[in-house]
Design a protein that fits this description.
Elements: H1 21-58, H2 65-82, H3 86-109
Helix pairs in contact: 1-3, 2-3
């Protein structure tokens, strides 16, 4: 059985130097934004680690549902104002909150 001269696996792929300049510029911007997001998340987790240590010292629970509810509402509103899907923003925040609670639980067990 002969294969066609250009099957999908044989189709040449565009290398970064062959990509249109605008695509390269947009990708560079995305890379910069991704780096900023990682740095911001690291800074956020530094703060939440300190919160976890304080909660452990004070005998406070790792989770604070009332605070979380306020934060979800606040970030959903910010998302709407920014043209971002509020549901996506809430899912992202819930993911971050779950990780923070996990860290706080670990700190409390020490």
């Amino acid at each position: 059985m002969e294969s066609s001269p250009e099957t999908p696996s044989e189709t040449p792929r565009q290398t970064p130097t062959q990509a249109p300049p605008e695509l390269l510029r947009l990708r560079a911007s995305i890379d910069n934004i991704d780096a900023a997001l990682i740095h911001l998340l690291a800074e956020r987790f530094t703060c939440t680690q300190r919160v976890g240590e304080l909660k452990a010292r004070e005998g406070l629970p790792p989770a604070d549902p009332a605070r979380e509810e306020v934060q979800v509402a606040r970030l959903r509103a910010l998302a709407r104002e920014s043209g971002l899907d509020p549901t996506f923003a809430e899912k992202f925040l819930n993911f971050v909150i779950a990780e923070v609670i996990h860290h706080h639980e670990a700190i409390a067990q020490r």
